Batch of 3 targets.
Target 1
Amino acid sequence: MRVEEHIQQYLDQEDEKMAYLAKAIWDHPEIALQETFAANLLADEMAQAGFTVERGVGQLPTAFVASWGSGKPIIGILGEYDALPGLSQQITTEIAAIQQGGPGHGCGHNLFGVASLGAALALKEVMIAQNLPGTIRFYGCPAEETLVGKTFMAQAGVFDDLDAALAWHPGDTNGVWYGSSLAMNSFKVNFYGVAAHGAAAPHLGRSALDGCMLMDVGVNYLREHIIQEARIHSVITSGGQAPNVVPAFAQIWYFVRAPNRAQVEEIYARVLDIAKGAALMSGTTYDIDFVTGCYEVLPNRVISDLMYEKMQSLSPLTFTAQEIAFASQLQKSFPAGSLEYSYALLEKSTSGGYSKADLANPLWRQVLPHAPTPLVMPGSTEVGDVSQITPTAQLTTCCWPFGTPAHSWQITACSGSAIGFKGMLFAAKALALTALDLMTKPEVLRAAQAEFATSTAGRKYLSPLPAGTVPH
Amino acid sequence: MRVEEHIQQYLDQEDEKMAYLAKAIWDHPEIALQETFAANLLADEMAQAGFTVERGVGQLPTAFVASWGSGKPIIGILGEYDALPGLSQQITTEIAAIQQGGPGHGCGHNLFGVASLGAALALKEVMIAQNLPGTIRFYGCPAEETLVGKTFMAQAGVFDDLDAALAWHPGDTNGVWYGSSLAMNSFKVNFYGVAAHGAAAPHLGRSALDGCMLMDVGVNYLREHIIQEARIHSVITSGGQAPNVVPAFAQIWYFVRAPNRAQVEEIYARVLDIAKGAALMSGTTYDIDFVTGCYEVLPNRVISDLMYEKMQSLSPLTFTAQEIAFASQLQKSFPAGSLEYSYALLEKSTSGGYSKADLANPLWRQVLPHAPTPLVMPGSTEVGDVSQITPTAQLTTCCWPFGTPAHSWQITACSGSAIGFKGMLFAAKALALTALDLMTKPEVLRAAQAEFATSTAGRKYLSPLPAGTVPH
Amino acid sequence: MRVEEHIQQYLDQEDEKMAYLAKAIWDHPEIALQETFAANLLADEMAQAGFTVERGVGQLPTAFVASWGSGKPIIGILGEYDALPGLSQQITTEIAAIQQGGPGHGCGHNLFGVASLGAALALKEVMIAQNLPGTIRFYGCPAEETLVGKTFMAQAGVFDDLDAALAWHPGDTNGVWYGSSLAMNSFKVNFYGVAAHGAAAPHLGRSALDGCMLMDVGVNYLREHIIQEARIHSVITSGGQAPNVVPAFAQIWYFVRAPNRAQVEEIYARVLDIAKGAALMSGTTYDIDFVTGCYEVLPNRVISDLMYEKMQSLSPLTFTAQEIAFASQLQKSFPAGSLEYSYALLEKSTSGGYSKADLANPLWRQVLPHAPTPLVMPGSTEVGDVSQITPTAQLTTCCWPFGTPAHSWQITACSGSAIGFKGMLFAAKALALTALDLMTKPEVLRAAQAEFATSTAGRKYLSPLPAGTVPH
Amino acid sequence: MRVEEHIQQYLDQEDEKMAYLAKAIWDHPEIALQETFAANLLADEMAQAGFTVERGVGQLPTAFVASWGSGKPIIGILGEYDALPGLSQQITTEIAAIQQGGPGHGCGHNLFGVASLGAALALKEVMIAQNLPGTIRFYGCPAEETLVGKTFMAQAGVFDDLDAALAWHPGDTNGVWYGSSLAMNSFKVNFYGVAAHGAAAPHLGRSALDGCMLMDVGVNYLREHIIQEARIHSVITSGGQAPNVVPAFAQIWYFVRAPNRAQVEEIYARVLDIAKGAALMSGTTYDIDFVTGCYEVLPNRVISDLMYEKMQSLSPLTFTAQEIAFASQLQKSFPAGSLEYSYALLEKSTSGGYSKADLANPLWRQVLPHAPTPLVMPGSTEVGDVSQITPTAQLTTCCWPFGTPAHSWQITACSGSAIGFKGMLFAAKALALTALDLMTKPEVLRAAQAEFATSTAGRKYLSPLPAGTVPH
């Protein structure tokens, strides 16, 4: 039996256990930084399988690193498991929360963590069988939804000795995600004023809300004078109690994003100047509550192409008539234009090989070739930070119907169902096969690292986190 | 026995019952529009005393009107009984909540309602004894703290047939409050936009928060072009969820105030234009959630002077050494400058007859003459609306130490103690004596009404509430 | 002949010469800081009369001080002579410029300077005749319209040794102006940015206009949090060249005013913080072009009452039928409401003695008693600075029809006519008589100085001008 | 002699006359809408050559259309001749105005008009010689610098019957400009308020400047919610007179630009809503002074490729050692980075065939192939409007040293020298040869028109000008 077959066979055997784990996490949805159940479940599983587990890395109680083997190369596989607030949902085609207002796996991270774990276990299996040198690492990464987890883990240096990293994300098609993303800073600005009666003594008051308002006006004036690809957006998270009191406290929460980290840093510095200006204008003081930050994803062509080759080599996904009917029914609940939107995105991120006729089947089976030019996704992920430390590639598999809106109850429904579990298994296999090649074909790894060296031009990773930042 | 003595004697007899009622309400603090216990307690008491009670007036379940007697003149006495959120406090000189974060009678309205009730009962007593014609009314007025109660009651016409109205408020001195206040509108502006991903598609979003922001900028530009005595203040009560989503909803809450109602209406119309402008600017829509509004207080010199005369005719308040010690101790917890601030206010609102040396005693016994020129209090009250419908006067009595800050735990503490109950009794007597004269001396009532006719210049009361406004 | 008669007789003799001088200045209208002709004409006249003349005081080429006599007391009389841009006008009742767009004496300062000069000459005459000790000073004060002259003269210390100062202003009634005014700072904020093509490279530009805009937004937010009597107003004097270039320069010009100097200083400091904040927000730099500043007028009751007494002692003004017809005709050109506005002001600033029936005659003859409480004029004058250095009083005489709008062509017309010259002569007499008493009645002067000492409470005059400010 | 040779020979003969005309216009620089001398000079020249000349087209006294021949096809050649304010300059390598502050040909339009005229004359010459059917048109297009000319001409329909149009622009290399530009609207917003004394009665004032300010704040908030490629920029052209008067008038001038006309219209409508909102907010009224607007350039690949072929077929430009020395000297006066900037632009707009070594010669001789994908120039031109009516192509020739900044005195210097005249002759030849093929090769014209039909998708040209707009 070829080693590739061994991997697939092993994972097919583990299918039930993986589905069990994914369902257990789905049944205990926990939002960012609170994933105690999921982190313990997965870490214990790894420990039981003989992996050395370090828990609580990067100041994060629910982050862990599980290692097996020794020496070079060291290949990392990333797993996530946090849920989203407000997306509790039963496994049905109509919106119906299990717990009204409760959290739910509306981004499919219950699948994410388990597929990666499966890949790591499969790899261990063949490394033993083949007596392969090297180290396999599974990274338990919490709080992806708030972009906190991997940034703090990276700051702690846990990815520093990797030779390459692999990740994936549940999705509505199959393929390699060979793209970039926006680097970002997330921070809250607290303004502190002086309370006073709004009618009797407004001249004695200094309004913290004025601080927020003026800062926001300043930021809107800044828009003209930054690169057009940058994004700044905000909400007011605390805007005073009652009109008759000049607000002594107010808070505004910002995201600053741009195609690369240096641009984010430059714009962030200017936004801080605006905060300072707003405090001067309103006679208030302020401080910055830095939440998190991340780098843009640095795609790696070598590993991405390898990944695609591996995905193609697998037996395609198959779905039952019932699953397809479920998926079709679900599609009917999507907002108008959802399929068109997804299709347009597909056209930009792949190099074809399909047509609109393929949309007849709501569940995608085909593996799509990625476009040669990386698309910049107008969002952010701290996989970006890992990708700036070591050559990194990501894939996606079909875990829900085509066109499913991001962060939706429909995703929660599918992530707890067989549809999601099938996509998860497919991902585990592709990850394991890719990792195997990186383990066993030095020339491939060298090529990936050479590309990485060129892309980063020797730039060392510096954490986006100001000294002393605590995850929250 | 003179009728005046009869009134005082009666109230001295009822002292215990009044203290019981005030304590019962103090023990069940209920915030605005939720005063079921207090309203029922007082309404039942009145019903039991033979008054005809109409409950739920002015769309307000906790408002009631209790009437006794028949024919003219009709004299109204106003009572309030709502508590304040967050001011739960034991009867001690140190801050110590009974229920952490719970409501408390931090404005002394438990005393307010009961003194007015006592005055009405006393009046009934002497009207029977003297076989006096006329009608006495007790108005159970809820939700004063949110300025909702009397405005909705006035809209329903319950004050329309009054010949005069009397009110009082617990305070830190004794005297008539011959002053005015600011007319006001309280309203929330809801902006409705279109949600969109802040990084991926901000051009498709229309930010409701932008609506609030631009409105607020517009309002700040308005400040230069309104009369300097006007006041506009606001808080942002809903400012978006998370920065990555263009907010589809946001809300800003405004108070507009000015020395008189016409000015408020004029400025309010301009603020509405600004809301409209902000919606046009941000591509959003908006609507107005009108909370409440009120008139400025129209003071009545005739009744105010009568009230002062009556207060002077009473035996002065007396406090025990223990009460004085409690009050002194409490004063130590006041913010710096509290006594100075109160003294300065006193100098503006009275015509003297005291000196700083009098501050040696924390509890005021003397009745102070009001200043001849009404002082405009830089705050608002819907007693204003009553005062625009019928000649109205208000007094205050010492229920807590001099310099006690408004809306404070110290007031809660005193309002549940013998200090507050003594001030309450004093107020009940003064109200009853004043009402008696208005009942029995037609020339005084005529003079008060003539003054009222001159002051209003034939202007009819129009409710500040837009059609369809529901109390909330 | 009594000394008072001597003064009046002397000035009646000099009437023709005074009219000649006033007409010469009227014929050569010069705006602020350019009053070479007027300054030389008056200074030469004083020099010829034996006064010692110091020219170019206070960094101002057109300011001068003319002194006669020696020793104490030293009494100063202030004169002004600058014209206004755009108010060129013939001596007719219809608008008709002599020089289209040219300057004109639309504030009557051609009369102002000459009456004061006349008073100084008359005083010299009687001091010689009576062999009186003391010094008489005539101050040639330029650039009143831009509030520059007396501030810079005061900074140079030229008023420091005065025992009292007198001034007047042409007007539409006769009386003492016993009032105050607003202290003020006038300054321009220059913002410096970086030019860039607005379409091609806006991200490389830093907009100086953004600096102005953001500063102005900041100032409008400040309005809520300053005393309501303060005033801040501005114009944009340079706002960029063409839209396709990010403006590298922009300028905004502010006035900050408040009832007293300390308040102006406090608010000014906050406005400077706003400028700094706006520069931070827009990535620009800025500097302050301080134009001028002044104090509020400190009225002196003692001298004001003396002045009134003197004015009353004079033969009243008389006007010919022709003059009255001219004035009536001119009144027809006034904007609607002008007479009502002036009458309302009169009621506030005087203590009566007249009725609306008196308006039948457009030219006021009667001398009106000033109100006992000083009215704060909502404008500014650097007579304020003199009044903070030495006891100062001001009067006004009828030089144009009642209700004439400030700074108008109608004033130009009257200021060149016999109407204006008559008012000027009346003013000269009143000033001289008042000065004489201050010279000869030490108890009056002492009383004025005692009042001044009380009012200023020992506060020393500090120039509002930052070090290094140059008049411009 | 081949017809192509005939054209070249003819133009070589006319070289001197063309240089004379270009120098005459250079010597009489006239800014937009004032080009009487240039328009007459060129129109007269055409009339003399037998062209039918219609003057004053499109409401523009200095616009004209000169036609020769009859029937189809009709080929138009565009010429411009307006100068720029402030760019007066001698033909030297150091900045030295002929008339300080006067206008100058700092964009080389003196060459532009004459080369196009030469091409039209050459075409007439060979049409006669070859007895060719068809019509040749020369368009005298004024006011390009303000984007007024061709828009108003297009509105008048003067390009409607064209089969194709050709244009060029002097530059620093040789090649076809196969690119697009930004569509645009230029408009001023006038706000009208109510004047009032800033200190005495600001509540009676309505500030027109507030209108501008609030509009600008609104526009800056809009930036987040429009496509990132759009541009809005503004200057304040009238911002009030003096701070003490609430401004009754103020004006802000905007450019709105975007990659296509529909986007401009959509954003413009939103900006008008903001103007309306600002008027509502400030209690002012407003109107729009629409200056001009234009479309994006629609490039035509067929004619562009033809043009390149023709340019390549010509003998290359030659420059004397003296001219090269002049050019090298001039380059030394360029701002740092000018050559790098131009080179970067070159790399984006061409498909190579050169290297940085070529920069050794400041004057470009080689004809560069245009890039296959049209580059969007981040600026605007009303050639865009012509290109939306008929297939249009544009070329550039070397008339000044590589890297010369746009709108500079260095361009003025070169445009009056032999360097410019040589580039002009080269352009005339290329234009004539291209026009000849369009005249004589129906298949080429058909292909160009087919491409145009596809690009416009049947969309008819609608003038960007609102009804009633007058050029100004």
Target 2
Amino acid sequence: MARVRSIPQPAPASLTLTTVLHALGDPVRLELVRRAQATPESTCDALAEGLDVPVPTLSDHWRILREAGVITITADGRHRRARVRAEDLDDRFPGLLAAVLRPGEPR
Amino acid sequence: MARVRSIPQPAPASLTLTTVLHALGDPVRLELVRRAQATPESTCDALAEGLDVPVPTLSDHWRILREAGVITITADGRHRRARVRAEDLDDRFPGLLAAVLRPGEPR
């Protein structure tokens, strides 16, 4: 069985609105969040497919999303998997994630 | 009568979600938007009172908010007045502004 572990992430109570908004306020990061929400537990590699962003930039994007509390990253053997912290975000900022991820939302 | 004129601002149809999120994703800008929403047609000077931000930085913040389509700035004689584009934002990104400006929202 692969060793699965969580990469450190902020506690729900420490999430701040401006940090979350800033994390979501980038086209690549918002697209990653949309994809992660659409296909939970995907690998980070699969989620970034076709985005044409250099690997170091992509790592920065994942880090910013994780540190803001928008996504959880899990290390699963050689893979990293991303999951949107929808429940934590809804608890803390009701309605925000739904408004941001509305289907058909202009970007 | 003072000459009142609008400073250029983007058309509603050209507002993009990530630009709006980025504009709101800063503590000073979010505070300016909260205050502008609470006291419509205030002067920009009055809205920035007590924020302890250098004037050039403040000008940048207002510009970013205006260019993102979050606020309208009107030049009223020597004063500039700010108004949140609540209707345009609601039309374009339903629920977003309400979620961001919820009273008691942790910041």
Target 3
Amino acid sequence: MLGNLGIAVVGSGRAGMIHARNFASGIDGARLVAMVDPVAEARAAALRELGLDRGYGDYREALADPAVGAVVVVTPTATHREIVVAAAEAGKHVLCEKPMAMTAEECTAMIAACDRGRVRLQLGFMRRYARDFVEAKAAIDAGAVGEVVLVKSHTRGPSVPQPWMYDIAKSNGPLAEVNSHDIDALRWFAGDDFAEVYAIGGNYRCPEARKEHPDFYDNVAMTIRFRRGAQGMIDGAQGVGYAYDARLEVVGTRGVLLVGALQASSVVICGSDSRLVSPAVRSWRDLFADAYREEDRAFVGCVLEDRPPTPSGRDGLEAVRAVNAGNRSIATGQPVKL
Amino acid sequence: MLGNLGIAVVGSGRAGMIHARNFASGIDGARLVAMVDPVAEARAAALRELGLDRGYGDYREALADPAVGAVVVVTPTATHREIVVAAAEAGKHVLCEKPMAMTAEECTAMIAACDRGRVRLQLGFMRRYARDFVEAKAAIDAGAVGEVVLVKSHTRGPSVPQPWMYDIAKSNGPLAEVNSHDIDALRWFAGDDFAEVYAIGGNYRCPEARKEHPDFYDNVAMTIRFRRGAQGMIDGAQGVGYAYDARLEVVGTRGVLLVGALQASSVVICGSDSRLVSPAVRSWRDLFADAYREEDRAFVGCVLEDRPPTPSGRDGLEAVRAVNAGNRSIATGQPVKL
Amino acid sequence: MLGNLGIAVVGSGRAGMIHARNFASGIDGARLVAMVDPVAEARAAALRELGLDRGYGDYREALADPAVGAVVVVTPTATHREIVVAAAEAGKHVLCEKPMAMTAEECTAMIAACDRGRVRLQLGFMRRYARDFVEAKAAIDAGAVGEVVLVKSHTRGPSVPQPWMYDIAKSNGPLAEVNSHDIDALRWFAGDDFAEVYAIGGNYRCPEARKEHPDFYDNVAMTIRFRRGAQGMIDGAQGVGYAYDARLEVVGTRGVLLVGALQASSVVICGSDSRLVSPAVRSWRDLFADAYREEDRAFVGCVLEDRPPTPSGRDGLEAVRAVNAGNRSIATGQPVKL
Amino acid sequence: MLGNLGIAVVGSGRAGMIHARNFASGIDGARLVAMVDPVAEARAAALRELGLDRGYGDYREALADPAVGAVVVVTPTATHREIVVAAAEAGKHVLCEKPMAMTAEECTAMIAACDRGRVRLQLGFMRRYARDFVEAKAAIDAGAVGEVVLVKSHTRGPSVPQPWMYDIAKSNGPLAEVNSHDIDALRWFAGDDFAEVYAIGGNYRCPEARKEHPDFYDNVAMTIRFRRGAQGMIDGAQGVGYAYDARLEVVGTRGVLLVGALQASSVVICGSDSRLVSPAVRSWRDLFADAYREEDRAFVGCVLEDRPPTPSGRDGLEAVRAVNAGNRSIATGQPVKL
């Protein structure tokens, strides 16, 4: 099954390069054939690092390339709908990074286009392929804590919000940027959809955004009620100085499960100040390096073996709906039904 | 300063006996002089265990006893107001267990009575005296995580809710029974009062209560906005089979702090099933044994040295207000302002 | 059973005051009646802190005091034999701190005297009463790791060796001062006696001792073979800057058990340097405060209920034999049989 | 630098396949060109899995293959000398698995042959490339614990000793099979060579070997003195049921460092038995998967950039000397100088 699926990665930013490096080596059944980036220098740098010669400035060129069987879409969220719909119409399978899109309507259009084009659409919630999370989910499914009562998850990232994020209407805020993963994880672990959310947000670390963007928040707390009655709690933050902190906890009728760790290695040092010191996880790239690889493998597997991918377009859609409901709740101060 | 303050403990249940044993030995400046319990057998058993001879069936007898300088009130919540007001009028100092009362009005009356009677009123939030929590609070105050952005706290207890708790209007529910501690801890760590809460509740473990008490909840998730803008999250549970689980987390502008542990000892065993196993904390009595002793010491210190106690009646009042706001939010599905 | 056994504590140093404070309050069946210390100021300070009026400059005065039913011997090791033998002859029960004595001969004389005097002799290996160690031993006995193959234990203490310790012939060195506890713990967990030891020592932290005391060591590594064939490993250190570090590990035929922790509290802080920081245990006084209390309780229980104490004089003797064998091995470079 | 160095892996057992899979994809500058295994079925299975067509039954065929620039030797230890010397004479670079050989003489011959043949010789102590160990070593070098006083390391593996290991004279026992890694790690962390060792061994888990092989041991404890005076302790075990347990600890003049963990994932589950449960590491293949990849990368880097490899032939030689000294100590009951 080696070498069958030609991959074009659209976007050569940090996450784009993770996928590109994976497909450049070590993903059975696929090979990286092209990089797409409208910025010439970024494109050239990516090709150089990857030892690749085919670079396109426009994603449409990649879609026209018969060597390309699938695209990985790692561009700004607002461009996802256009690219994914075009890819589907060109008959290219799609691995689309999160958040899927800005609105539920966009997501629905993307799903419909992929259905019409008979191409696979997988969403980039890589925690579904992170070893510890997979192990945790298997334990939950095996009844380790009884019935799921409450799922808590948080993601707090060190990346300082960039000015384009300040306008929540345009960026969908931290709920989209960091908590999309928690939203998907909650749905995955609860095995259920969100019925209602309530969220509060505040700007604690970006004083420069306060005047022009009073609605901007860099810290958010959200409560969720699932359709079948379980509870959820999510919190998120951007620009935390300390680490990349992603942990999840499931309270069941008969137990509790924790997954995720702040500690980055097994090294513990105690020096003359009598303090135990260990390194914290600094980046999602370190924490989820293996998960991205497994995600890319799973995508290739679905395409080559003609199976429905996980997470699906619907998982992407539900996350976008939750993000938007959360943002509406923050804006109105009221719980919002989905 | 030995032997100055005579203590009567009103109520010989589990928490009552913790206080009684403490005052029976090892609290400088105080001595246990009487136990009060209307149930003769319980009273007799307590006196026997404590090696004490003075037992009263009615708290008023203890208040009339000149050897009694202070009372520790460890009776059902609904009786607190009457007992504390009477104690204040009798000139007896008061250490009152949590929750302080059923309503804010009761709390206000208790505070006023203690003010009028010129007696000290301390509330039984013993986490304020738990070594790890004290250490954590000192670190927060020293700026270890920057400004406080979000305080999360949860308490999940193994005690199965008893039928008298099923009627939330009469019991105030888990928010009162277990989460009073989290509410006080949030206020303590944030250094601020609650401005608004939103809570959801559900009954996941007590099917026998569902028919007659559809409003009963044994699991709750609450979001808090503080007056000066910080965020809070609390969750609580009763009847969890697994442990007594009380952990708190503070997210700041520049870091994070965690306090509380599920692990009850340093013992780790790995046997032939390749699983690492450690014992979990089974009871608040184990976890907070030292904290109760420090709390009792602090109370005696405040009385003897004529200092205002911590936590105060106002801390008790604010917690009751938050409990009631949370219950109203659960009932109405809307956020509730305090 | 309250108030039966009058206790005199001989020696008002750090460990002496721990015992004295315990017996001054909270040990059922016993009461502190006298402190012994030849240094008048130290004695006076101890009496003042303890609220006690009976202080003796000479242990013989305490032995002559009819209110004294038992003595706790917390004096320099070289004085133990004389005091314990005299106490036994005076009919006083003895709780003797570790190391029991300087030589096996002294130990044998002490045991014989206590037998003749029909008094109880308990040794001060308080780890036998430390909750985590007790729990670990129970798990081993219950077969949690199968048959015991290897017991490892170490004690590394922050106390800087004092000049009187430099002469190993007079002090018996760190093997006596800190590793006595490990030796006893190994025998306890293996349920067996030492057959042979091999040890190496070195002076790494006390350059000022090197010239006059080339044999002084502040770090030691010892290998043990038990009579029935199990293995042991001990290491010890004095003057480590970092913590009081006492951990034990048991390898069995089917598993492993770890007990003891460097971490002093559940508080973990991660600040802007992305390092997880927790406080380390700074002193055996913190770590074993509860163990000392249980040890003192157990001693009183044995005396009042006429049961043989644990650990016994023989446990003290075997530890001294192991210390001396270890020191001989260091000196000769050869394994030494016991 | 892609595709320059052709690799033949000699031996298709578990470790052989790890190297083969690495070189088959993802190691820049190298490509797997051939597998060598005298067993036809094993060879065929390896080729099939690797998608490779070149398989040799005799290593000499690989050495004669001009496409082969380097060999990875993953055969039984007793064959290492012959293969490595032949490879060196054929001008092929060598990555040789541990233990390097059975005797110091063999090692010396191998080193000399590689020197004469001007080929690189790297030893397969992959812990030198394990992320946590590298981080730990960097901290030690940066002075995190002061001067190194004592290095402790152990490896306890779940693999049940196979009958060919029972004859220590032929297998060199667990000291060679599992503790070679600890020996190398001690030298690496101490930055020094062994001066003297003392070891004891016993057979606790393999009763079937006792009669014919009374010298066989499956558990070993070894004490080490380094040339410049530091101390070392190693223990090792085979056939432990519980996990693959590899941990290292460095005591310095001013601190302590721990590296290695029993816990295999961040998942912690607490169910209704109030026990915290996490999975333990089951195999070195899981634990060191990344380390093998880094080791293979480093080997290719040394060859292509003409740098001396780490660890070197001399590191392999010193480990073999320590293994043999340890076995002699076990046999004679005496410390053995190196």
